[in-house]
Amino acid sequence: MTEQQPVLFVDVDGVLRIKRPYDGKLDPLCVSHLNAISRKTDARIVITSTWRWSWSIAQFNELLDGRVIGITPDVPPAYAGEYSRFSEIRAWLGLHPEIKRWLAIDDDVEGFHPHCQHVHLTDPSIGLTSDDVQKIFVLLKHR
Fold first, then answer.
1. Cβ neighbours of 49 (radius 10 Å)
2. Boundaries of domain holding 87
3. Per-residue model confidence as pLDDT tens digits over 61-115
4. What pTM was computed for the model?
5. Distances (CA, A) of 89 to 4, 8, 24
6. Do 112 and 87 contact (CB within 8 A), yes or no?
7. CA 32 to CA 105: how far, in whole Å?
8. Number of domains in the chain
9. SS3 of 13, please?
10. Are 17 and 127 in contact (CB under 8 A)?
């Protein structure tokens, strides 16, 4: 992992799994969009979703081109404050100070500080789209 390689902090529900009745499966089109981003930008992936508790990194890597390098740690609510997802990402980044370029892909704005410029929000009813892919390319280019 080099300082120039971006890291994508990826949620699952609403990003890789369209919010519908739970079926335990990721949406193949959303997964292909994330794989396109990671291939074109040489990005690595860190899973921020609660799915990190039930799926192994190996299971994620089977679908995500082997680019998953970790999961965010649990941050107790007393330390996380109101921006829990952002706190988990900051904790992971604290363990990896070499990482300078990063972007969170999530469907829930409430997990992030209002002034966080490192987050791209998806529509949870459709997940990660080709429009999102183009916007993320632009965001990563300027990181």
1. 22
2. 7-141
3. 999 999 999 999 988 776 767 888 899 999 999 999 999 999 999 999 888 888 8
4. 0.93
5. 18, 10, 24
6. no
7. 15
8. 1
9. strand
10. yes
d(CA 9, CA 89): 7
Side-chain half-sphere CA neighbours of 43 within 13 A? 30
Residue 71 lies inside a defined structural domain of this protein = yes
Assigned domain for 115 exists: yes
Kindly provide the residue ranges of all beta strands, DSSP E only, lying in the chain, ordered along the sequence.
7-10, 44-47, 68-71, 102-106, 119-121
Name the strands in the sheet holding 7-10, side by side, starting at the edge strand that comes first in the sequence: 68-71, 44-47, 7-10, 102-106, 119-121
Is the separation of the CB atoms in 122 and 19 below 8 Å? no
